[in-house]
Amino acid sequence: MLGIDISSSSVKLVELERDKSGGWILERCAIELLERGWITDGNIEKFDEVADALRKLVKKSGTRTKNVALALPSSAVITKRVTLPANLSEQEMEVQVESEAGQYIPFALEEVSLDFCTIGPNKNMPGEVDVLIAASRKEKVQDRQGLAEAAGLKPVIVDIEPHASHLAAQRLIDGLPGLKDGAVVALFEIGAMTTSMQIIRGAEVLYERDQAFGGAQLTQQIVRQYGFSYDEAEAKKRSANLPDDFADTVLKPFVDSLAQEVGRALQFFFTSTPFNKVDHILLAGGSAALSGVTQAVAQGTGFACTVANPFQDMQMGASVRQSQLAREAPSYLTACGLALRRFDQ
Questions:
Q1: Where would I find the SHS2 domain in this sequence (predicted)?
Q2: Of 10, 21, 46, 208, which one has the greatest count of Cβ atoms within 10 A?
Q3: 123 CB-contact burial (10 Å; exposed 0-12 / middle 13-18 / buried 19+)
Q4: DSSP assigned state of 186
Q5: Can you list the pairs that 271-279 forms with residues at least 24 positions away whose Cβ atoms lie under 8 Å?
């Protein structure tokens, strides 16, 4: 199964495999850029253009796999954690979930795609289990399904973006040196328009927050400084083909702003919860690999910081261009999490 992440700036594809010993193999990954305005706030504004980009992406990757896992942004999904009796049959659980969902969803149930999963026993109430309910407008799900089908793919799973990125990040967190059980890790995904934060402890997400800050602001600063068109500035940013004074006049102020945004998001977490520190910060997304980012964040927050490479400790398939991947790897976190769903039991 392919993992395909559709964001406001690009579509990304990941295909994973496992060897006989259980080790991970990155068989394929590829990225196709989207023009501004094709996708806005998770809504597909230019369906045909995005579908065409997805077809190009699949062709570029060389895959023959048709099954695909996609994701919706958290803004398009309502999630609610509820507690239900542990002894319910699956059918009884479905009836209860629909009843609970009706209280929290501001749409008629016929208009939504609804799913749920049992998280585990409730710690405070013996005989009860915690259940996570997720619901989205059917049209949002159908848009993603339609894109996959237009590209000749078979949509099998529609996930939620932060859940997919958490799945990929969990593998990295488990491998961080020096972290004890119960360590609290802050995962920041720096997208084009939005930076998303998840505070993770084990399998649990303690806190989530989105901020309107992203890599598009760096592109805009390049446009203003050098007079390039937006598309030209974006291309030069990705290929690191910029004037000699770029690092000092444009990149450093952006990196400093990014570190301040990370610090600000953490302060929101600290002031609204009993926590006053995190044990580690992981940075993902296209801007995470920029020079000086981890140092600026570590210095600004006082917490250890690393870039999330979702393909860490994986074997590389023959079709993977490793030189390019070194720069792009952090932007594949969600796509990698979606690809991992194939193996998620």
A1: 1-169
A2: 10
A3: exposed
A4: E
A5: 272/207, 273/206, 273/207, 275/184, 275/199, 275/206, 277/184, 277/303, 278/184, 278/185, 278/186, 278/199, 278/303, 279/179, 279/183, 279/184, 279/185, 279/303, 279/304
Q: Are 148 and 70 in contact (CB under 8 A)?
A: yes
Q: Which residues pair with 4 in a beta bridge?
A: 13
CA dist., res. 142 & res. 178, Å (int): 44
C-alpha–C-alpha distance, residues 65 and 49, integer Å: 22
Average pLDDT of span 283-302: 95
Nearest to 282 by CA among 198, 201, 161, 194: 198
Identify any residues that bridge with 207 across adjacent strands, giving them in sequence order: 199
Mean predicted lDDT score pLDDT of the chain: 93
Q: Write the single-letter amino acid at 306.
A: T
List, for residues 129-139, the tens digit of each pLDDT value. 999 999 999 99
Structure confidence at residue 112 (pLDDT): 93
Q: Could you give the CA distance from residue 277 to residue 304 in angstroms, rounded to a whole number?
A: 11
- Look up residue 262 and give its two tokens: 């990370």
Instruction: Count Cα atoms within 13 angstroms, Cβ side, for 188.
Output: 34
